[in-house]
Design brief:
The chain has a 5-stranded parallel beta sheet. The chain has a 3-stranded antiparallel beta sheet with strand order 12-14-13, covered by helices on one side. It has a two-stranded antiparallel sheet with strand order 2-3. It has 2 domains: about 240 residues, P-loop containing nucleotide triphosphate hydrolases (Rossmann fold, 3-Layer(aba) Sandwich), CATH 3.40.50; about 210 residues, no CATH class. Strand 8 and strand 9 form a beta hairpin. Helices cover about 40% and strands about 15% of the residues. It is an alpha/beta fold and about 475 residues long.
């Protein structure tokens, strides 16, 4: 990333006016400038504007190490990675071959660094540049050993005659190698207790000691952690001394309302709805997909300590669009419009994303739980539309023995044909999403039928992908 305008030796660096500062001070300076300019501090993060982000802001301004505490799928890792954008675009360091750290040109912490400054003139001291994107490193706690993140005595160097108490005998772990950068540890409660102990001095004294030998390094690093509240607060896996040394705890959460959840789905799904096989998604279908996650997050059959990730909604949304797009390709519908029957494929996109509560007194299979979640989600969204559009008249039609068959591969035009017997009442159904498009009207029909079934006004039978609705 080095350019011709960047100083290439220590003399040029000093003449450029560059000043050495700690990584937390560097982040503070850049963060405060972004704050003052009114910039989007954490682009791509939705729903945290008034809750989580203000707490992160205070933590960064205070110069704290941070713990992000929340259930899965609450953007903890993304938030940690975004903090790296407040680093300088590039950082100068002493260009020393085989040096384990990126030495501060004015304040080296290793023997090779100090030796270079002592033996060479400033014109002879080479300077290289460390790009911002390489100054962030993260590690998953499970399986992480002391040597991985702190360091260890290198047996090969001992065999070569190096003294065990000499700096050269040490193998540096990931945290010392991130000197002047950011280190993040995901799933903190899964971290071995010995490694937790090794973090004490780094968090409090900002130095590293390996195996108790009298070799110390004054490490400059911002440390971030993530954890699930259940394991962090109640499992006892995180030793109290480590908790005491973390500056700020940032509590994340799931979307506080359905509209925010839908916004997250659309952003994270990243689907191009145009192209050769375009898809138009009715808003009520987006509401059903997000409502499924909302229902799941309070289901007594699921392990709520684990949580229901936003990836549940995103996968279901992608699957729904994919099913509609398949119909568009097979039947030549342009654009294809997702229907409730497209959610019949949610088993493949949902299984594995929900953790069953094994202690529940009502043991259901995962498929049964998914069916119940979908039915409740449809019923909740449908009830809101009933208040606006009054669809009782349609339910009365089924009392006269009307049956309607639907399915994800049924041509949209056939829906109109099957409803010709009752056009006046069904016109009210299309108020849900006013459109003359056969595909959109087919989606409205399925939504109303599924809603009437979810509110126990009509019955439903299903065989080989086809669904028949009739009066109970």
């Amino acid at each position: 990333m080095a350019t011709t305008t960047q100083p290439a030796n220590l003399l040029e660096l000093r003449e450029s006016g560059w000043q050495s500062k700690s990584v937390k001070r560097e982040i503070y300076d850049n963060f405060m400038q972004s704050l003052a300019r009114g910039e989007d501090l954490f682009p791509g993060i939705i729903g945290y504007e008034n809750t989580v982000i203000p707490e992160i802001n205070i933590g960064l301004i205070a110069g704290h190490d941070l713990l992000f505490l929340g259930e899965k799928g609450q953007a903890k890792s993304r938030l940690m990675r975004l903090i790296g954008r407040f680093l300088d675009p590039a950082l100068p360091y002493l260009d020393i071959p085989n040096c384990p750290v990126h030495e501060d040109p004015y304040h080296p912490i290793t023997r090779p660094g100090r030796q270079m400054l002592a033996e060479l003139s400033e014109l002879q001291v080479p300077i290289a540049w460390w790009p911002r994107e390489k100054r962030y490193a993260e590690r998953l706690a499970p399986g992480t050993k002391f040597a991985d993140v702190i360091g260890e005595i290198d047996p090969a160097r001992l065999a070569g005659g190096t003294s065990m108490s000499a700096e050269e005998a040490l193998h540096f772990g990931l945290i010392p190698r991130m000197h002047r950068g950011i280190f993040a540890m995901n799933e903190l409660p899964e971290l071995d207790e010995l490694v937790q102990v090794g973090l004490f001095n780094i968090l409090e004294e900002r130095d590293v000691q390996i195996r108790g030998y009298p070799v110390r390094f004054d490490i400059d690093v911002l440390i971030l952690f993530s954890a699930n509240p259940a394991t962090y607060n109640r499992s006892g896996k995180v030793i109290p001394q480590l908790k005491d040394r973390i500056g700020s705890v940032i509590h994340t959460h799931y979307p506080l309302d359905r509209a925010t959840g839908i916004e997250i789905i659309e952003q994270e799904a990243g689907i191009d709805l145009d192209g050769q096989f375009p898809v138009t998604v009715p808003y009520f279908m987006r509401e059903i997909v997000e409502e499924m996650s909302i229902v799941a997050r309070r289901s007594k059959h699921l392990d709520q300590q684990s949580g229901v990730s936003a990836r549940f909604s995103i996968a279901n949304y992608r699957g729904m669009v994919a099913s509609a797009r398949q119909r568009g390709a097979v039947l030549g519908e342009r654009p294809a419009v997702p229907r409730v029957s497209d959610l019949g494929h949610l088993y493949s996109t949902s299984l594995g994303k929900l953790e069953m509560d094994m202690m529940s007194s009502h043991q259901l299979t995962e498929r049964q739980v998914l069916d119940a979640i979908l039915a409740e989600a449809i019923g909740n969204v449908f009830s809101e539309y009933i208040d606006r559009h009054g669809l009782d008249e349609i339910a009365e039609i089924f009392a006269r023995g009307v049956k309607v068959e639907v399915g994800d591969l049924l041509p949209s035009g056939q829906y109109a044909e099957r409803l010709q017997r009752v056009p006046p009442a069904w016109e009210k159904a299309f108020e849900v999403n006013a459109s003359s498009s056969p595909a959109m009207r087919a989606s409205c029909v399925e939504f109303v039928l599924a809603g009437l079934h979810a509110t126990e006004r009509i019955s439903r039978s299903q065989t080989q992908g086809k669904i028949v609705y009739e009066i109970t």
